[in-house]
Amino acid sequence: MLKNIPTNISPELLKILCEMGHSDELVIADGNFPSASMGKKVLRYDSSDIPELLKSILKLYPLDQYVDRPVGLMECPKEEPSIWKKYKKIIEEEDDGDIKVELIERFDFYERSKKAYAIVATKEKSLYANIILKKGVIK
Q: For all residues of the chain together, what is the average pLDDT?
C-alpha cells in the first residue's frame, strides 16, 4: 500500500502514468469506444466511471502547460454532452490554471488514439465521453 494514491488507481494504471513522459497522451475511453482495436496498451477499467477516474488521475498527472489545449474531447455532432461539464469542473478543481479543451473530429480522435501511450477502457455509458490527456511536466 502507498499513501495518498487514490484507491481507484490500480498498480497497473499507476505504472503506466509513471512510465509516460512529457507530451505522451492517455485516452480514457467510454464503453462504446473500440479500445481493443485502437491501442497496443489497453487497460480495462470497468470499476469506475470516467469522471471519478479523471479526478483520481489528475491528482497524480500534470497536464501539459506548453500546448494550447492539453485536453481533447471527441466532437459530438449534436448538443454538448452533459458529461463534458463534469470534466471541465474536475479539470478546474484538479489543475492550476485555465485549461482549454480541444474538440477532435471522431475519426481524427481514432487516429490520435492509435498513437496514444495507452488507452484506459471504461464502462462509461455516456455518449461522446472519450477524453485525451496530454502529459506535462512537474515544475
A: 94
24 annotated active-site: no
We find that the CATH architecture of domain 24-134 is: 3-Layer(aba) Sandwich (3.40)
Active site residue 117: no
Q: Would you state the torsion angle of the CA atoms of residues 77, 92, 95, 1, taken in this order, to the nearest 10 degrees? A: -90
pTM score above 0.85: yes
- Residue located via cell numbers 469542473: 89
3-state secondary structure of 122: strand
Report whether 114 contacts 22 (CB < 8 A). Answer: no
Q: How many CB atoms lie within 10 A of CB 31?
A: 16
pLDDT 10s digits, 35-75: 999 878 999 998 889 999 999 999 999 999 999 999 999 99
Pick the catalytic residue from 49, 61, 64, 117. Answer: 64
